[in-house]
Amino acid sequence: MNVLIVDDQMDVAEGIAQGIDWKLLNVGHVYTAYSAADARMIFDAVMIQALLCDIEMPEENGIELTRWVTQKYPYTKCIFLTSHAEFGYAQEALKLGSFDYILQPAPYEEIVTAIKHALESFEEEENGRHLKQRKNDIACSTLRDFLLNIDYNVESFIKNMKRLGFGIDRHTQYGPMLIHIHNREEAFEGWDGSLLQYALNNILAELLQPLGYSILIAPMDENHYAIATFSDGPTVVPKETVDLFLRALQESLGGKASIYVGSLVEIDSLSEGIQKLQFWARNNVARSQGVFQIHSMPGQTLEMNISHWGQLMSDGYGVAVCLDAKRLLQGLADSGALSVRHLQIFHQEFSQLFFAVACKGNTPVQDVFSDTYTFQAYMQAHESLEQMYEFLDYAAAWVEKEIKGEQKAKNQIEKIVEFIHANLDRELSRQDVAEYAYLNPTYLSRMFKKEMGCSLNQFITNEKIKLAQTLLGSTAMPVSAVALKVGYTNFAYFAQIFKRVTGMTPNAYRHSQGKPQ
Questions:
Q1: What is the arithmetic mean of pLDDT over 71-81?
Q2: How many other C-beta atoms lie within 10 A of the C-beta of residue 491?
Q3: Which of 6, 227, 312, 367 lies in disulfide reach of 177, CB 3.0 to 4.6 Å?
Q4: For residues 50 and 115, what is the distance between their CA atoms, to the nearest angstrom?
Q5: Terminus-to-terminus CA distance in the chain, angstroms?
Q6: pLDDT tens digits for 6-40?
Q7: C-alpha angle with apex 203: 197 to 207, nearest 5 degrees?
Q8: Which residues share a beta bridge with 51?
Q9: Which residue has the higher pLDDT, 132 or 212?
Q10: If you count DSSP H runs as helices and E runs as strands, how many of each does the chain have, helices first?
Q11: pLDDT tens readout for residues 210-250
Q12: C-alpha 1 chain-centroid distance
């Protein structure tokens, strides 16, 4: 037990601290403070069971200090010490629930008696609180086992709850609720399940017990807590009260949460009622925070414009499709209608669309994913709206880079081919073409081969020989003139290249076309 003596007169405070045999009172530590500010610091550092406080003190008097103690540490027993026998002080002390009021000077025996009674009262109340908490813990465990169908039928549940002091029967009306903590690891790191359950129970009790409700709270897993409320009257907990609970959970504890509220049920249907709320919690794939009543969550169908999205993606407009898809999903989420099933269907349909576009671009499915976005992440995308958005963002970026980039490359290749055809009568090198296209020669070669299936030099040669074949077969132009027409100034070299490509000499080719040499 700890006792704090507060008096602005140091000799008075120290005199009491030194003049009493505290061991006889089972007091472990006696603290002294000479101002209300010092007293507050001690209260915030250690647990104080009994406070002896002077009333008349400068800056902040004992009445004001005790009012603060009563609000922040309501179980502490407060005893006033004062040399002023004023009725107003006594009246205010009674309002604050002070344990005793002693006029100074007073013999130590009177002070000792007051402290002894205060500590005995604190211990008795503390034992009562512990017993009540123990009964509540057992009741919550009993509720959890009942909801999970572990060893309990309705009759045994009612019997065990009555033994714990809960006046319930088969016709008691329960208000089922379910709390889903979204950021358990982040906000409550280091908290064990019982500590979080205790904090939730305290907030609920503060809000609901003044309204006449009894509360049972049971952890279903580390993120979900089932709540059963009941009262003398058949009423559900008002929504505004549940809103206050959620706000307290968010602001006081830093938790991100959803609270699902069901309709009143009798004990036979309580487990089923909680299961319905768990179903809705699983379907809150948007991880939306708020208070949800199950009848306020309508179902909607998922309407995707697959053909339109497919055309846009084939043309490389991945971002446009991503934005349209997000608008669709977010609309369902905002209305509270987006479910796991919706995301599963969307995942399947959009995947088929995405992979079809990838295959058209000659990209195997396994090559679509990378260290930036893995195949494992893709497989889990249907589990939440956030994960689905990550998949959509990656798919959009991939389409913009690969498909639109491919379209851009095709446009460049078309212009390059036109340039080659327009300049077949001159010697064309890779450098000439690169300068025309404003491209790095090495990049040009790589891009050209990817798009055309052959090297740039090979393509130029083939196109020159095709033109030469046309001229040899349709005109009487001398072979040397044909060579010049396709950019070869060395006739022997032209003949060599022509034979390598066609398998015959220029003259032999002309003869095969029925033209005289």
A1: 85
A2: 16
A3: 227
A4: 7
A5: 124
A6: 988 898 889 889 888 888 888 989 999 999 999 99
A7: 140
A8: 4, 78
A9: 212
A10: 22, 10
A11: 888 888 888 888 888 998 888 876 577 888 888 998 888 88
A12: 44
Across the chain, which distance is largest between two alpha carbons, in Å?
Answer: 144
Which of 500, 499, 481, 477 has the alpha carbon at shortest distance from 491?
481
Q: What are the CA-CA distances from residue 316 to residues 174, 203, 327, 358 (Å)?
A: 56, 53, 19, 11
State both tokens at 373: 């976005």
pLDDT tens digits along 193-208: 677 888 888 888 888 8
Dist. CA 331–CA 335, nearest whole Å: 6
Q: Residue 57, class by beta-carbon neighbours within 10 Å (0-12 exposed, 13-18 middle, 19+ buried)? A: buried
Residue 292's SS3 state is strand
Other Cβ atoms less than 10 A from the Cβ of 396: the count is: 21
Pull the structure tokens for residue 117: 């009674």
44 burial level (CB within 10 Å; 0-12, 13-18, 19+): exposed
The letter for the amino acid at 496 is Q
In angstroms, rounded to a whole number, what is the distance separating the alpha carbons of residues 485 and 220? 86
**What mean pLDDT is predicted for residues 308-334?**
85
Give the DSSP letter of residue 26. Answer: T
E strand or H helix at 496, and its extent?
Answer: helix 491-502
For residue 39, give Cα distances in angstroms to 44, 49, 195, 252.
9, 13, 28, 25
Is the backbone of residue 403 left (phi > 0), alpha (psi -120 to 50) or beta?
alpha
What gap in Å lies between CA 225 and CA 148, rounded to an integer? 13
Q: Which two tokens stand for residue 136?
A: 């509540």
Answer yes or no: are the C-beta atoms of 52 and 110 closer than 8 Å.
no
What DSSP state is assigned to residue 236? P
Only one residue has tokens 């009848």, namely 295
Question: Which two structure tokens, joined as six digits, stand for 342?
Answer: 């919706």
105 CB neighbour count, 10 Å cutoff: 9
Report the distance separating Cα 371 and Cα 412, nearest Å: 30
Strands (E), 50-174: 50-54, 77-82, 100-103
What are the tokens at 473?
Answer: 């077969």
Listed in sequence order, the residues at least 6 apart from 376 whose beta carbon sits closer than 8 Å to its beta carbon are none
How many beta carbons lie within 10 A of that of residue 230, not counting itself?
22
Distance in angstroms (rounded) separating the CA atoms of residues 385 and 139: 37
- The pLDDT confidence band at residue 404, using thresholds 50, 70 and 90, is low
**Residue bearing the bigger pLDDT, 501 or 190:** 501
For residues 335 and 302, the answer to whether their CB atoms sit within 8 Å is no
Residue carrying structure tokens 């690969």: 402
H/E run at residue 10? helix 10-19
Cα–Cα distances in angstroms (integers) from residue 261 to residues 9, 237, 276, 350, in the given order: 57, 9, 10, 34
pLDDT digits 0-9 by tens, 266-311:
888 888 888 888 888 877 777 778 888 775 444 566 778 888 888 8
Omega prior to 105 cis, within 30 of 0: yes
CA angle, 144 then 149 then 150, to 5°? 75
